[in-house]
Design brief:
It holds the Pfam family GH94_b-supersand. This is Glycosyl transferase. One of its GO terms (molecular function) is transferase activity. Keywords: Glycosyltransferase, Transferase. By secondary structure, this protein is of the alpha+beta class. The chain is built from 19 helices and 42 strands. The protein has three domains: 306 residues, Beta-galactosidase, Chain A, domain 5 (Distorted Sandwich); 113 residues, no CATH class; 181 residues, Glycosyltransferase (Alpha/alpha barrel). Helix content is 27%, strand content 25%. It has a ten-stranded antiparallel sheet, with helices on one face. Strands 6, 7, 8, 13, 17 and 18 form a six-stranded antiparallel sheet that branches.
């Protein structure tokens, strides 16, 4: 069942039924100010940090669902309705929600009144614009009342939702003309405030929620709206809202427009604390002056569209498979940019109050956006590296506003350090900018403890080789990529820290997955040092990678697939010897991705085992059989019901690892089959089963053991976006940046016989035409570069060549 359709020409997904299985959302904002907006106008806004600088409230897991957003009530006689359907839920004669790139557009009709609402965050601005049009389609004049509504948050979203004994005495607001200012806690040594304004005279306002809703009132039928009035309240303690009331008369065919602005502002630095309780309105009014006219708003929308067109032009594909083209050209890259901005911090599944930015998460996300915004990727790498400890370990998460490590989560995830090498290698391959390695970067954000980024990479490398277990495999610590595989929890007392020196002094659980990671990224570290002329360090890295390779084959191979781990007692995890959890997806994908076991013939065996034991029609499960009872020695993984999350759910994030692995052994049909099963555009017509948005990836889909097999959760903010783009762009389509040029190495399914790719790389545009006439899929038969046949499949980077025409025959 579909709830809408794709419009590729406009780069939109158009929802035609507001009652989607879950709220289907979009992200507004690219720099400092962000908003989430659902298909019913729900969501919230924040400045830089969803926890510490939240502008508006959102009620998670509320009944009714998707409560709070930017609402516009229309009183038309006895009828009250909203252009986004919520919160009145009045049936509409027409409803459309167009989620586009950085904007959402609503088109609704009720009783011959048409309303268009466009919501977006302009480039380089700290505000959300709501551009509202009302048009009379009737033959007679109509009198309407328009009432706006937002509910302000008291900045710290955690304190706002818990500390009511204090917060219900804090609320302060000020109204000047059509400008509503939210200044709660401003007198408490804060220099920022929020505002909500409209470019039109108003007939009334409210800032006190209690008065606006009425006793025991609800947002679906506020007392002020049902009485078609406003009370001109100024909040004093309690909950602060922003509401304007505008009385409108529309002649037949007449259209009127209104520009609402929700913004964040700060007093100038020299006025920060000099006048408590008094805000300098000049910064807000400077912003408002830029959005007073229709033409100003339309120009901002044009700039936003041009920004996304330019960004997404850096990698495009045209081929017979429109769904793959749609995802590659639009939605997959768009989602990669959202994960760059948000990491895992703010969605409809992450409240924005806890996780902040993830170390591992942000490093992996970079793989998917580095080609789009390399200059911002550079800064992100430096920010991430600054949360690393001197011993090479890392905070698992950090807050985006302070860029400081999250002490509540701490460290101990022993895969984290290696992801810094992965991110840096990806950046170097894309840009050739080796100057980043010389940048001085603090450890633990301590100015007195800093060294070069290259030294940070060395500490990451050394952390792994100094934390090896009895089998020569890396110690897992608190967990590896699978946060819920806590193999040391049985041997660790509450509050006890993980050992950091050697296997004889603490938990000895080992990870075959980290071992595979180490082989891949130790080789990248070795290559970086080789290119820098650091011969000793390069050889040391290559030797360590080779030694780990041998350890994996000796003690990490189970006969038909790779083991997952050894627990704290030296027992195998992910072995045919286990009754449950015999095989896990992660080491099968990542070890082969690291080319472990390919020449020995192990790769085909383990990938065949994946297909035989882990495949479902909705994707590859994380492990099988599912754990039926809780195992203290395994930790959180066995706390989930069978088929959900890490307990045999389908983790979309690591399905691409297996697809990439299949391309490395030349099985293009199988690689593409894996790609399609979790790709939203291919499963749009089962949205009633899948439930999350059909235009972006979700983290997890319920596995075969679950009663709701096929149901997705945790959409938008997932490493699936970056890894899937790496898979499809670099391995299936086969355009791979390398340290000294661009490698062309497609691995296509039989059905794709021809395609065109445009790839921007280091200031050069590569126009690549690929022919797969015999359905072979893999292996370059012939390659012409600007009309000249070349040997091999790498186009060496040459400065000042601006354009390449490339013909490839597989």
């Amino acid at each position: 069942m579909k709830y809408g359709y794709f419009n590729d020409a406009q780069k939109e997904y158009i929802i035609t039924n507001p009652m989607t299985p879950k709220p289907w959302i979009n992200y507004l904002g690219n720099e400092d100010f962000f908003s989430l907006i659902s298909n019913t106008c729900g969501g919230y806004s924040f400045y830089k940090d969803a926890k510490l600088l939240r502008l508006t409230r959102y009620r998670y897991n509320n009944v009714p669902a998707d409560t709070n957003g930017r609402y516009y009530f229309i009183n038309d006689g006895d009828t009250i309705w909203n252009p986004g359907w919520q919160p009145t839920q009045t049936p509409l004669d027409l409803y459309e929600c167009h989620h586009g790139l950085g904007y959402s557009y609503f088109n609704s009709i009720k009783d011959k009144i048409e309303v268009n609402l466009t919501a977006f965050v302009p480039l380089h601005e700290s505000c959300e614009i709501n551009y509202l049009k009302l048009k009379n389609l009737d033959v007679s004049s109509r009198k309407l009342t328009l009432t706006s509504y937002v509910e302000f948050c008291f900045w710290n979203a955690v304190d706002d939702s818990t500390n009511f004994q204090r917060n219900l005495s804090l609320g302060e607001a000020e109204v000047i003309g059509s400008e509503i200012y939210h200044k709660t806690e401003y007198r408490e040594r804060r220099n920022h405030y929020a505002y909500y304004s409209v470019n039109h005279p108003i007939n009334g306002y409210d800032t006190d929620q209690d008065a606006f809703l009425g006793p025991y009132g609800r947002i679906g039928a506020p007392k002020a709206v049902t009485e078609n009035t406003s009370y001109n309240t100024l909040a004093s303690g309690g909950t602060v809202i922003g509401s304007h009331r505008i009385e409108i008369c529309l002649e037949p065919g007449e259209e009127k427009t209104f520009i609402f602005v929700l913004g964040y502002a700060e007093n100038p630095e020299n006025e920060k604390w000099e006048a408590p309780g008094i805000i300098n309105k000049t910064p807000a009014r400077d912003t408002l002056s830029r959005f007073q006219t229709d033409e100003q708003v339309k120009e901002a929308l044009r700039s936003l569209a041009n920004y996304w067109d330019e960004l997404l032009s850096k990698y495009t594909v045209q081929c017979s498979d429109e769904k793959m083209s749609r995802m590659v050209n639009i939605w997959n890259q768009y989602q990669c940019m959202v994960t760059f901005n948000m990491s895992r911090s703010a969605s409809y599944f992450e409240s924005g109050t806890g996780r902040g930015m993830g170390f591992r998460d942000s490093c992996q996300d970079l793989l998917g956006f580095v080609h789009l915004i390399p200059e911002r990727a550079r800064q992100r790498i430096l920010d991430i590296a600054a949360t690393q400890m001197e011993d090479g370990s890392t905070y698992h998460q950090y807050q985006p506003l302070t860029k400081r490590g999250n002490l509540d989560i701490g460290s101990g995830f022993n895969d984290d350090p290696l992801w810094l090498i992965a991110a840096t290698a990806s950046y170097l391959k894309e840009t050739g900018d080796y100057s980043i390695l010389k940048e001085q970067v603090e450890f633990d954000n301590n100015p007195s403890k800093a060294d070069t980024l290259l030294e940070h990479l060395k500490r990451s490398f050394d952390y792994t080789i100094s934390h090896l277990g009895p089998h020569g495999l890396p110690l897992i610590g608190r967990a590896d990529w699978n946060d819920c595989l806590n193999l040391n929890c049985f041997s660790k007392e509450p509050g006890e820290s993980f050992q950091t020196t050697g296997p004889s002094e603490g938990p000895v659980a080992e990870s075959v997955f980290i071992a595979g990671m180490f082989v891949k990224y130790a080789r990248e570290y070795g290559k970086i040092n080789e290119l820098l002329g650091n011969r000793y360090e390069s050889h040391r890295a290559y030797d360590a990678a080779n030694l780990m390779y041998d350890s994996i084959l000796k003690d990490g191979w189970d006969g038909e697939w790779f083991l997952r781990a050894y627990d704290a007692f030296g027992n195998k995890v992910g072995s045919h010897e286990n009754e449950e959890g015999k095989i896990f997806i992660e080491p099968q994908g990542f070890c082969v991705l690291a080319e472990v076991g390919i020449k020995e013939g192990y790769a085909e065996s383990c990938l065949d085992s994946v297909e035989k034991m882990l495949d479902t029609k909705y994707g590859i499960m994380l492990q099988q059989p599912a754990y039926q009872t809780y195992h203290l020695s395994l930790g959180e993984i066995s706390s989930y019901p069978p088929g959900y999350k890490e307990n045999a759910g389908i983790f979309c994030h690591n399905n691409p690892w297996v697809s990439i692995a299949e391309t490395l052994i030349g099985r293009g049909n199988r690689a593409f089959e894996i790609y399609r099963r979790t790709c939203p555009a291919y499963i749009e017509n089962i949205s009633e089963i899948h439930r999350t948005e059909p235009y972006v990836y979700s983290q997890m889909i319920a596995g075969a053991d679950a009663p709701k097999h096929g149901e997705a959760k945790n959409s938008w903010l997932t490493g699936t976006a970056a890894w899937t783009f790496v898979n499809v762009s670099q391995y299936i389509l086969g355009i791979q940046p390398d340290y000294d040029g661009l490698v062309i190495d497609p691995c296509l399914p039989d059905e794709i016989t021809e395609l065109d790719i445009t790839r921007h790389y280091r200031g050069t545009i590569y126009h690549i035409h690929v022919k797969n006439p015999h359905g072979r899929g893999k292996g370059i038969k012939e390659m012409l570069v600007n009309g000249h046949r070349i040997t091999g499949n790498k186009i060496a980077y040459v400065e000042n060549i601006l354009d390449y025409e490339i013909e490839v025959i597989i």
